[in-house]
Design goal:
This protein has 153 residues and is mostly helical. Helices cover 67% and strands 0% of the residues. It has two domains: 63 residues; 64 residues, no CATH class. Helix 1 runs antiparallel to helix 2 and helix 4 packs antiparallel against helix 5. The chain is flat, with a radius of gyration of 19 Å.
Length: 153
């Protein structure tokens, strides 16, 4: 049962990503740029390519996986903690900016999922948000929410 559910959900996500990617080549996305190097379809296409790749990996993984005899039960406390961490991090982003909100957010996510080694926690919690910020700022040229203390930078 879990294998069929995983396969159907991941296949749906793959088909949805392909469909949305195809939509970025319609006339609605064919607008002139305002002196920039890339048009308005660049960022959605980038995100959708990543989405398609991850959905393809999940679909293949679900297709190849063997049915497990005993399924692991859902840990409701862990699920509730992750939902609260996500909501708190999202709210904090609007108040203190992306980097300052996601560093403790990544730390708490890692803690909730069982990472307890201090070096791993430090590297993931600091390098992850900084890498994402650099990718969006310099790669996609999309500004993430900034801290109110650093608007001039």
């Amino acid at each position: 049962m879990h294998r069929a559910l995983d396969f159907s959900v991941s296949l749906f996500l793959l088909i949805a990503a392909i469909f949305l990617f195809a939509l970025t080549f319609t006339d609605q996305f064919d607008v002139p740029t305002f002196g920039g190097d890339v048009g308005p379809a660049f960022a959605p296409r980038g995100f959708l390519v990543a989405w398609m790749a991850l959905a393809l990996v999940a679909t293949i993984s679900a297709w190849r996986s063997a049915e497990e005899a005993s399924a692991e039960p859902i840990r409701k406390g862990q699920l509730a903690a992750v939902i609260l961490i996500a909501a708190g991090t999202a709210l904090a982003m609007t108040r203190i900016g992306f980097v300052f909100a996601t560093i403790p957010g990544f730390f708490l996510f890692c803690w909730a999922f069982g990472y307890r080694k201090p070096l791993q926690l430090a590297v993931i919690s600091v390098a992850g948000p900084l890498a994402i910020w650099a990718l969006f700022t310099y790669g996609f040229e999309l500004l993430l929410p900034r801290s109110p203390w650093f608007y001039d930078l």
